[in-house]
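G., the chain you wanted modeled:
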Amino acid sequence: MPQQHGWTAGFITPGLPIKTTFDVIFRDNFIVDNNHKNFGPPGSLVSGIPTETVILIMSVDDVIIENNIISSNHNAGTVIVDLANRADASKNPNAEPNPDRLVILDNLMFDNGNKPKGGLKALMMVQFSKKGPDILQ
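Predicted structure as tokens:
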């Protein structure tokens, strides 16, 4: 299996001519201890992704996440959100904001979310939990 360093994302970048992303496949990856600092340029859409998030699906359609090992990632294993999650991203009226037709199957996910960050940490506190999920939607 390929080793993943850093995070993997499928998302629409506002302001660019392409308004859709679809037919994305994350398959046969070994994603363990992805607990690195966010390397996105300050002020960019990427810089707003919480550190230690492994797979981010934001407004992408027809995604398959299959046969991966996703483990020991501090924030969350997989996060699925729409464009409304980011105020600067949701301003684009031509981009369809919702992720549709996502399939997650035959993955081994464990020990993710032990040190949640940002909004995920706040969500876990509201639920009286200190641990985040393997999958957050």
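The two ends are 26 Å apart (CA to CA).

Shout if anything looks off.
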